[in-house]
C-alpha cells in the first residue's frame, strides 16, 4: 500500500451509524476549514419508472425544492442564498440524490431546508407547470444535439425496450407533456423510501453531534416503496453488429457512440476494465484512440473511451465527433484500435504509465469536502468496503498485462457491437 493511501479516509476515520428509519449516516471529520458538505442517496430513481412516464423520477426530484410544508419556493431560495449556501436534488438510474453545503455555523438552516424538502414537499401546482415548461425546453434542445441523440440511440439499441436503461433519465418530450402534478405526488408517495439510503457528511463537524442532528431531522421520516418495486435488471452484450444513423439537418458534425454492454460496479473485472479503458482512450491525449484516430490520422475532432458501471451491466463505449465525410473511416480506425487491444498484450511501460495516472489522479479527486462526500456515498451504496480508498492504489497496481488482454477480449469485439451516430448526411 502506498504511503499516500494512509491519508485517505478509511475504517479508522469514517464514522458510521444507521438512523432509526434505515438511512446509513457516514461522517468524516475534516477541520481544515469552517465548512461542511452533506450528500446522500435514497432509492427512487429512473429504474422505478414505467416507460410511459419516462422522466418522472427526474421531475419529482426537481420538485422537492419547489415548496415544502413550512416554506415556499421563494422562501427556500432566499434562506439558502442569504447564507451563501447551496442545495440541490437530482435523480439517477436507481436513486434520488441530494446535496448541500455551507459554513458550518449555518448548518442548522441547511439541514432544516434539506429535511423539509425530502420529507414534506408540497408540490405546488403552479411550480410544477413552471418546471414542466423548463424541462420541455431543455429536452427540445437536447433532441437537436448530435452528441445527446447518439447517446440516446445507443442506449435504445443496447437494452430491451422495457429496461429503464434504454431511455434517458430526463425522459422524452411526449412523456413529460403527459405528466401532471398528481403523477409526481404518487411517484413520491409510492416510490421514495429512506430505507437503504445513505447520507455522508464531511467537514468541520463532530460526528456524534451530526448523528444526533440527522436523527432528529430525518429519523422519523418513514416511507415504503413496496408498491413501486425496482425490477431485477439484467442486460446482455450484443451478439451481432447493431447500428443506426440518425440524420439531423443543419449540423456540421457527426457524433458517434460505439461499444458494448460490459460490467456492473461490483464486478471483479472492474479494475482491469478501468485500466484497459485508460490505455484505450483516457491516458494523456485520450490514449491510443486519441493518438491514432485524432492525432495521426486526423479523423476526429475528439475521441475517447469511457466505462459506466452501475447496478445493472453498463456500457463500455468509444465516443467521437467527426466530419460527416469521415464517418466510415473513423469507425474503421476505432475498430482497429479495439482489435489491437483485445489481441495484443500492452507493454509493461504503457501499463505502468496508465496505472500511475489513475492512482496519481485520486488525491486530486479528493481535494474537496464535496468530492470526499461523493466517494463515501459511492462506497456505501455499492458496498465497496470502508478501506476502498486506502486499497485503491494496490488494486490498480495489481492489474497485469494479462488482465488487460483478458477483459479487453472478453468485452470488446469487432464483430458484435453497437454503433449509434447522429449528424447531417455526408
Write a concise synopsis of the structure shown:
The chain has 426 residues and is α+β, with helices and mostly antiparallel strands. It contains 15 helices and 11 strands.
Please provide a written account of the structure.
By secondary structure, the protein is an alpha+beta fold. It folds into 2 domains: 3-218, Cytochrome Bc1 Complex, Chain A, domain 1; 242-423, 2-Layer Sandwich (Cytochrome Bc1 Complex, Chain A, domain 1). Helix content is 43%, strand content 18%. The protein has 15 helices and 11 strands. It has helices spanning 56-63, 73-82, 107-119, 125-142, 146-158, 173-177, 181-191, 207-218, 270-281, 283-296, 327-343, 348-365, 369-381, 388-397, 401-411, and strands at residues 14-18, 24-29, 35-43, 86-91, 95-103, 198-203, 242-247, 254-261, 302-307, 315-322, 418-423. Strands 1-2-6-3-5-4 form a 6-stranded mixed sheet, with helices on both faces. A 5-stranded mixed sheet has the order 7-11-8-10-9, with helices on both faces. Helix 1 (56-63) crosses helix 7, helix 10 packs across helix 11 (327-343) and helix 12 runs antiparallel to helix 14. The chain is globular and about 60 Å long. Residues 1-6 have low confidence and may be disordered.
Amino acid at each position: 500500500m502506498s504511503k499516500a493511501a494512509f491519508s485517505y479516509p478509511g475504517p479508522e476515520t469514517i464514522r458510521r451509524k444507521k438512523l432509526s428509519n434505515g438511512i446509513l449516516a457516514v461522517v468524516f471529520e475534516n477541520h481544515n476549514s469552517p465548512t461542511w458538505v452533506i450528500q446522500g442517496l435514497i432509492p427512487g430513481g429512473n429504474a422505478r419508472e414505467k416507460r410511459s412516464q419516462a422522466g418522472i423520477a427526474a421531475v419529482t426530484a426537481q420538485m422537492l425544492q419547489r415548496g415544502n410544508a413550512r416554506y415556499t419556493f421563494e422562501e427556500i431560495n432566499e434562506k439558502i442564498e442569504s447564507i451563501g449556501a447551496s442545495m440541490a436534488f437530482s435523480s439517477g438510474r436507481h436513486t434520488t440524490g441530494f446535496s448541500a453545503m455551507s459554513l458550518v455555523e449555518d448548518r442548522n438552516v441547511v439541514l432544516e431546508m434539506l429535511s423539509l424538502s425530502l420529507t414534506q414537499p408540497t408540490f405546488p401546482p403552479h411550480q410544477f407547470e413552471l418546471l414542466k415548461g423548463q424541462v420541455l425546453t431543455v429536452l427540445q434542445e437536447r433532441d437537436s444535439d448530435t452528441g445527446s441523440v447518439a447517446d440516446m440511440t445507443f442506449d435504445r439499441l443496447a437494452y430491451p425496450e422495457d429496461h429503464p436503461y434504454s431511455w434517458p433519465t430526463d425522459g422524452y418530450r411526449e412523456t413529460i407533456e403527459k405528466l401532471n402534478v398528481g403523477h409526481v405526488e404518487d411517484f413520491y408517495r409510492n416510490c421514495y423510501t429512506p430505507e437503504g439510503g445513505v447520507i455522508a457528511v464531511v467537514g468541520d463537524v463532530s460526528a456524534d453531534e451530526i448523528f444526533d442532528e440527522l436523527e432528529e431531522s430525518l429519523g422519523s421520516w418513514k416511507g415504503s416503496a413496496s408498491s413501486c418495486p425496482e425490477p431485477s435488471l439484467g442486460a446482455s452484450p450484443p451478439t451481432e453488429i447493431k447500428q443506426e444513423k440518425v440524420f439531423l439537418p443543419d449540423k456540421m458534425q457527426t457524433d458517434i457512440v460505439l461499444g458494448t454492454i460490459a460490467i456492473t460496479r461490483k464486478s471483479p473485472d472492474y479494475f482491469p476494465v478501468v485500466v484497459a479503458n485508460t490505455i484505450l482512450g483516457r491516458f494523456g491525449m485520450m490514449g491510443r484512440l486519441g493518438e491514432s484516430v485524432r492525432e495521426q490520422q486526423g479523423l476526429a475532432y475528439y475521441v475517447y473511451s469511457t466505462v459506466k458501471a452501475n447496478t445493472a451491466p453498463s456500457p463500455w463505449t468509444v465516443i467521437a465527433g467527426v466530419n460527416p465525410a469521415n464517418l466510415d473511416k473513423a469507425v474503421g480506425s476505432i475498430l482497429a484500435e479495439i482489435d489491437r487491444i483485445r489481441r495484443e498484450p500492452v507493454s509493461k511501460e504503457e501499463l505502468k504509465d496508465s496505472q500511475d495516472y489513475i492512482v496519481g489522479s485520486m488525491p486530486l479527486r479528493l481535494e474537496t469536502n464535496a468530492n470526499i462526500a461523493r466517494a463515501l456515498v459511492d462506497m456505501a451504496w455499492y458496498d465497496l468496503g470502508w478501506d476502498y480508498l486506502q486499497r485503491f492504489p494496490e488494486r490498480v497496481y495489481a492489474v497485469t498485462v494479462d488482465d488487460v488482454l483478458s477483459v479487453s477480449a472478453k468485452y470488446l469485439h469487432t464483430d458484435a457491437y453497437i454503433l449509434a451516430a447522429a449528424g447531417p448526411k455526408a
